[in-house]
Amino acid sequence: MEKGENKMFGRKKEKEEQPQLREDGLTDYDVYVMSRQEKTFTMIAAAVILFGVGYVFYHNVILSALLSLFCVKIPKIRTAQIIDKRKNQLTIQFKDMLYSLSSALSVGKSVETGIRDSLQDLRVIYPDPNTDILLEMEYILRGIGMNNTIEDMFTQFAERAHLEDVDNFVDIFVTCKRTGGNLIEVMRSTSNTIGEKIEVKQEIQTMISGKKYEFNFMMILPVIMVEFLTLTSGDYMDPVFTTVPGVLAMTVSIAVFGLAYVIGARIMKIDI
């Protein structure tokens, strides 16, 4: 089955050449490996921004260059953001798949036939053939065609998705298959639960969207204020750039600035 696995997941977007690699060639949604080009671009962009911020606070090329060295940490932060975004998208796609699959089962179709019909429905919703849920369903169908059980295929998906909703669904699905439970009701209930969670999260995101803009502005404001004072009151700001206490004060300011960003970003991140 390894040949089929590798063949399926060879169809990835060019800009995601090495997104999530496992030894078996399947997608692990908790892993993202930046391509060399993507990592280089991220580090260069971060270095330029950090150098600019450093120069505003220090007016010293050497100190600004030292601050820009922190750009080596940015790819890790960016990677975490990409992983979170992709898993959120997969959750929404999984919910759509369950809606479609439960509808197919409700008219008396088998699970395998329901998966095939759901795949066709999802291709209408997600025209991009590299959409994660489409690739996963294609892989599940390919596995079933190679005499693997549906339970095993869904279990493999759950192990790689690292999503609580998927784990819960698969656990219940496997139990129902083995004990003869009501699969239609399980899928309908699971899809409704996931849908409600997504709606609650979206409502919260809408409520705090204004605060996010304020947060981003507050992160930029100190840089604007320092540069404004430098341009309008150069003599007043000169000791800050030319004396040791002034440089230390600016260093502390940058450290507080960075800490405020970390804390603010965590507050703005909503987990339901």
Task: Report on this structure.
- Helix 8 (about 165-180) runs antiparallel to helix 9, helix 9 packs antiparallel against helix 11 (about 245-270) and helix 10 crosses helix 11 (about 245-270).
- The chain has 11 helices and no strands.
- About 80% of the residues lie in helices and about 0% in strands.
- The longest helix is centred in the last third of the chain and has 50 residues, at about 185-230.
- It has helices spanning about 1-10, 35-60, 60-70, 75-105, 110-125, 130-145, 150-160, 165-180, 185-230, 235-240, 245-270.
- It is elongated.
- With about 270 residues, the protein is mainly α.
- The chain has one domain (about 10-270).
Shape estimate: elongated
Q: What structural category characterises the helix and strand content?
A: mainly alpha
How many domains make up the 3D coordinates?
1
**Number of alpha- plus pi-helical segments:** 11
What share of the residues does DSSP label as strand, in percent?
A: under 5%
Segments where pLDDT lies below 50 for 5+ residues?
A: 1-19
